[in-house]
Each structure stands twice: as C-alpha cells, then as structure tokens.
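User: Some background: our group keeps a shared notebook of sequences we're curious about, and every so often someone picks one and asks for a predicted structure to add to the entry. Today it's my turn. The entry only has the sequence so far, pasted here. Could you supply the structure so I can complete it?
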Amino acid sequence: MTLSEQTQQGLSTPADQSTATQTEVVNFYSFTLPDLEAFLKKYGKEKFRAQQIFKWVYEQRVTDFDQMLNLSKDLRSELKNLITFKLPPVLKHLISVDGTQKFLFDVRDGNSIEAVVIPSDDRLTLCVSSEIGCNMACQFCFTGKQKLKRRLTADEIVGQFMVVQDSLDKEGKGRKLSNIVFMGMGEPLDNSDNVFKAIEVIHSPWGVNLSKKKITVSTSGLIPEMYKVAEAKVRLAVSLNGWSDEVRSQVMPINKKYPLKDLLDECRRYYRATGEKITMEYVLLKGVTDQIDHARALVKLLRDVPCKINIIPFNEHPGSGFERPSDETVQAFHQETMKLGAQVLLRRTMGRDIFAACGQLTTKNVERPETMDISNSKIGGTNVRSFSRG
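Assistant: Of course. Here's the predicted structure to add to the notebook entry:
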C-alpha cells in the first residue's frame, strides 16, 4: 500500500496535523527532522530519507520532489501527494528610509500578520509574529488593541523566515538573516508549542541552522511558560515597562496576575539555568515611565537581576492615548541609568515611518495609516518604497 493510499484511509499524520482532513496534505515546514523521520518510517520508508529531503529544502531551497534525484522515482511520486511546500503569500512589502523592511503576510481566512527585517552594521534581524492579534492587551502596543483571533502554526512561523530569506536571496546581494526575535504580533509564550517547534526547525543543522544565541523569545511575563525558554536554551527578553506593580499594571494588565516579584524571581531562575543575562525591554511613555526618578526606581528594582536594559522610546499608533517623549527626555533617562551603573542600551528606532517599529504591528484590517511623517525626527525623511503583491 502506498503512502497516499494509507493517508486516504485515515491513518494519522504528525500530531500538529490533527485538525487536517483525511485528504489534506501536510505542510513540510511543520516538520521537525524527527517528525519527518517518524512520518516516513511509519510507512516503511528509511529514516535517512528525511535528512536528504531537509537538505534539499533548507540548504539548496529545492521544493520540487522531481528534482530530488537521490530519492527513488516511486517515493518522489508518492510524496508529491502527501507533502506541500506552501509558504504564506506576501500581500505588501514596505521599505523604510532607514532600510527596515516590513512584510504583510496572508495567513488564510482574511487574516494577516506582519514581520519586520531590521538591518544594522553587524546583523540582519527578523522580527516574527506568533499570533493574529494578542490577548495580553498591553496599552502601548497596537497589536494589543486586537483580540486574539488565532495562534499561528509552526509552518506559518517558519514560513515567515523562509519567505523573507528567499526575498533577500532574490536581491542578489548575498545578505542572510543572522538573528530572529519573537517580538512581533502576539505573545510567543501564549503559543509556546508552535513557537518552540518552529525554533527547533530554525536552529536544527538540518533546518535553517541558526545558532540558539541568535534566537530571542520576548514575553510580557507569562510566568508558567517561561521555563520553556531556558529549556530551549535561547535568549530571553522581558517586556517590563514599569518600575512598580502599580505602574506596570496600568500599562500591562498581565501584571495583575503575575506581579513583578514573581516575574523577577522567574528571571533569576532563567539566569541560573542558562547563565545568560535577560534583556529587559522598557518603553518610555511621556509622563508615565520616562522621568529621572523612574530611571532610579527602575535601576533599583533590577539591581540583583542579571540583565541589560533596553530603552525603547514609545512609537506612536492611532488611539494609543500615549505620547513619545522628547529626544532630550530620552537622553536624560538613558544617561541617568548609565550613571547608576546599569548595563543599558538606547534602542535606535527603526521603521517608524512605515509603522514597523516596536509596538506598531497589526493586521491589514485595522484602521492605521500605511506611512507616517517623521521628517522632524532623527531618522529624517519620509520616502517610503512600497510593493504590493497578489
């Protein structure tokens, strides 16, 4: 009996395909290497074939079974009926004046997500989304204005990476994504099964082969799931944004359930397990989190937490109710934290003119301008290149 005949008779496919119909094919990008080995072995095929296929797809970017010549002709014919290489289509591609690129992806049923490529001198970082919408409702985040519609599947997460890298390859400049951060739409740890499955593919030598030191998972503080970041041995970033429970609960409702003491205790546990410092992301909101006494309280709060502080000036979006502090206020906050001995980085705002900066991502169906005039900012200019597809 062939693989396709057995599948049509209702024999199971990998666990994450439990919602698939009997005639539905499996998306290759949902497979880890052990998944594909088990899939093939179940039907009497050699496990090593999985490594061959992974090499074709991730190393050589061949997704046509007819071109995988070290597979038998019969196996190639059977697999074509069982496995698809579908990637999320790009609806729009915007390029900022600072080189940041934003991709709007179609993820079925009228839903869309955004992912962002952030260039710097020594790296090219992809910020991926993990959900359509978000249940965390952080007040400074545009994604948080949307209720969660759906958690992305592992293939939709891996697919963002593959589409963007393919796009870079087509430029012919030899640029490769060097880092990936789970800081786009959604709370990654609210979709931990699919996020860490995608990380396994992205890290695996048979997959994308990206070092775990180049992978960062950001969380708003979903404490029961944070141990998984340590288990995966990837970097942890925490969206902190408050020096007290009162302030943090005001801007991040999750703090009412998981207060600062518990969150920081979990951060210490992560450090003990990994030896890696945590990145504390701190958004400066005018009059709310940006004053000198706030800087002092923040450094005091984190004095015994092995971390570095990432200062992020608020990025505007419609209906936020918050304002971006002046450049002078931002610099004063930065200087005060450094003077107090904190390891701190003032994050350069990237992609703000195309709503691609931290806290600005959303779906195509939410009212938001496509571009913003930032001619009076340090970034300067408003020339935005836009590409619509399909």
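Suggested note for the entry: The two ends are 40 Å apart (CA to CA). The chain has two domains: 20-84, 90-388.
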